[in-house]
Amino acid sequence: MELKDKEVLKEKLKFAFAPYSGVHVAALAIDDKGNHYYGVNVENAAYPSGLCAERAALFGSVVHGAAIGSFKELHIISNLNKILYPCGACRQVMLQFLKNDAKVVLHSTNLQEERIFIMDELLPGGVKDSDIKSA
């Protein structure tokens, strides 16, 4: 991912709606065609009715014609001045949208630090389509 794309991702933090936690998160999902889909977290007074940035980006991609299972990268950044890991619910959704060898890149707010994982490392034993279709 180029520096300008990282800067755009960081800029998306300002669109997060987090009046309760104060934690702003932005995500960028990139499919195998190179299309970019952004999402931010949106909180709601009736917890847990909000939505994390990762799921917002992936779910929002569907309306634009993205194919579930076609994503090769997911980038995540927050305003916490540290690396923020995706929650369990997001990891399960990511498992369905991302390829098994997709890169998940966690960025620090200043873009100076990043941690890179392969999707299968983040949720070993997660529920996959093949588990349900073979039942």
Automatic annotation (TrEMBL):
A GO biological process held by the record: nucleobase-containing small molecule metabolic process
GO CC annotation: cytosol
PROSITE patterns on file: CYT_DCMP_DEAMINASES_1, CYT_DCMP_DEAMINASES_2
Keywords from the named record: Hydrolase, Metal-binding, Zinc
Family matches, as Gene3D superfamilies: Cytidine Deaminase, domain 2 (3.40.140.10)
Keyword Lyase: no
CDD domains: cytidine_deaminase (cd01283)
All residue ranges annotated as the CMP/dCMP-type deaminase domain in the record: 1-130
InterPro entries: APOBEC/CMP_deaminase_Zn-bd, CMP_dCMP_dom, Cyt/Deoxycyt_deaminase, Cytidine_deaminase-like
Gene Ontology molecular-function annotations: cytidine deaminase activity; identical protein binding; zinc ion binding
Stored Pfam families: dCMP_cyt_deam_1
Family: Belongs to the cytidine and deoxycytidylate deaminase family.
Protein name: Cytidine deaminase
